[in-house]
Structure formats: C-alpha cells, structure tokens
Amino acid sequence: MSEAMDIKPDAQVKSARAETILYVDGVSVTFDGFRALNNLSFYVEPGELRAIIGPNGAGKTTMMDIITGKTRPDTGDVLFKSETDLTKLDEADIANLGIGRKFQKPTVFESHTVFDNLLLACSGGRGVFKALFHRLSSAEKIKIEKTLITIMLDEKRDELAANLSHGQKQWLEIGMLLMQEPELLLVDEPVAGMTDSETEETAKLLRTIAKEYSVVVVEHDMEFVRDLDCKVTVLHEGSVLAEGRLDHVQKDPRVIEVYLGR
Length: 262
Ligand SMILES: Nc1ncnc2c1ncn2[C@@H]1O[C@H](COP(=O)(O)OP(=O)(O)OP(=O)(O)O)[C@@H](O)[C@H]1O
What we know:
- InterPro entries: ABC_AA/LPS_Transport, ABC_transporter-like_ATP-bd, ABC_transptr_urea_ATP-bd_UrtD, BCA_ABC_TP_C, P-loop_NTPase.
- One of its GO terms (cellular component) is plasma membrane.
- Keywords: ATP-binding, Nucleotide-binding, Transport.
- One of its GO terms (molecular function) is ATP binding.
- This is Urea ABC transporter ATP-binding protein UrtD.
- By secondary structure, the protein is an alpha/beta fold.
- It has a domain at about 1-95 and about 230-260: P-loop containing nucleotide triphosphate hydrolases (Rossmann fold, 3-Layer(aba) Sandwich).
- Helices cover about 40% and strands about 25% of the residues.
- The strands form two sheets. It has a six-stranded mixed sheet, with helices on both faces. A four-stranded antiparallel sheet has the order 2-1-4-5, with helices on one face.
- Helix 9 links the parallel strand 7 (about 185-190) and strand 8 (about 215-220).
- The longest helix has 14 residues, at about 195-210.
- The structure holds adenosine-5'-triphosphate (ATP).
- Adenosine-5'-triphosphate binds near residues 32, 36, 54, 58 and 61.
C-alpha cells in the first residue's frame, strides 16, 4: 500500500468506526523484541463473515489474543461495536460483552450428552449439577432446539459427546458458543483434522451462523476458505498484506510469494 493510501482523514476513520463490530487500528505488539503484530489494521462490519489467512507466524493467533484480552497491545485501538475499548478489559469482561472464541481443539463435556452440553453452555455458570436439574424455561428449550438443528446434531441429541466424530465435536462446541448468543464469534482453524464432507458442512454452518452474528475465521485450508465465500484478509509479518475476495488475493504476487506459492 502506498504512503498516500495510508493516510486516514479523521472523518474517514470516524465513519469506518461507526459501521464496525470490530475495529482494529494500528495495533502493534512485541514479544522479547520480536514484533508479532506490526501496525495491524482491519475492520469487520456487523453481520460479516471474514476469513483470515497467512503463513505460520503471521500473527493470526496473536491477533485473536489481542481481541479477546489475552494479550495487551503496545499501541493501537481495538474497538467493539465502535465504542468499547477492548484493550482496557479482561478476558471475562470481553466474553460477557458478547465475543465468543472457539479454539482449535474441541473442549466439550465428553461424558455428557449433546443436549446436556448445550444446556450446560446456557447455564450461566450455575455449575454442572444445578444446570442439569434446573427446570428449563421455554426460551432456553427453543434456543437449544434451534441450535441442535443449526449444528446438524439434532439426531445425535442423546448421544454422549465422547461418541461424536472430531468434526461433530467441533460443531457441538460452536453450538455451545451460540448458546451465549455472541455478537462476534472468533473461530480458530475449525476444519483441521476434519473429513472432506465435514469440512464442507462446516463452511455451510459458518455461513448460516453469519446470517445472525459476525464471524471471523482463521484457517489454512483454501478449499474451505473458498466455500466460505467471503472477504479474505491475508496477514504477513503482523500486518495486512492483502484484502478482498479469495480470487483477488490469490492473484496478488505478494500473496503468492509469501504464502500460496509455497
Ligand atoms: N508469547 C509469545 N512470546 C514470544 N513470541 C511469541 C509469543 N506469541 C507469539 N509469538 C511469536 O509471534 C509470532 C506470531 O505468532 P502467531 O502464533 O500469532 O502466528 P500465527 O499466524 O497464528 O501462526 P500459525 O499459523 O502457525 O498458528 C510468531 O513468530 C511467534 O513465535
């Protein structure tokens, strides 16, 4: 990007902020002298599905850590819904604001059924015993039923989570996050280790979820990213290298050189 394009007049910055669910601007973070994020700026609109790609070490995980309050930036702004400064909040506050994060490995309650996993997720910290034995409100029931269908596990509702395939466990964990009705969902490499058909179904699932919530997905699997059919941000050395539709960024010689051409 040219220097001229880098200059953001105040009015332009303001209008970008006004329309964003996530506003990351000029974020840098250094670990022991190594700059993991370097003046990183990108914006996500409400209801948007966004894929983040980039080579190993590009800063994708660090970026998620900054958004969720696990890591503090040295400089830069991170705003949720244009006004809440996430750099001042801790991880629990940020989760309570409505930002859900799905880590790469599924962490479901293996010895409970699919249905009970969703029930536990909407229990609001009641504890396992109380959560499983309290009377479900009709709103909770509807929410669980709707989520079971969304995550394609309606027919597995009485199955122990331990008996699910790896892909189904990932979907269940996404469902558990949906029970909290997050406005922004961050998903880290969801299809690693999935079968081809599970990968395809996961793209459909995330596209469905993005009709209701904003979703940011970090992934290396290009077929999957193509299926997401969304805007793609390419990170490299802690900055945005390119942004646009996958077809567009795949043709960018810089992207081919540092990532896709390998
Ligand atoms: N806590 C830390 N201390 C020191 N260096 C770190 C720390 N966290 C990340 N890094 C370094 O910052 C850089 C960016 O790492 P990050 O994990 O964000 O990249 P990534 O794009 O998620 O890579 P991958 O695709 O391999 O997961 C890497 O060089 C990594 O070694």
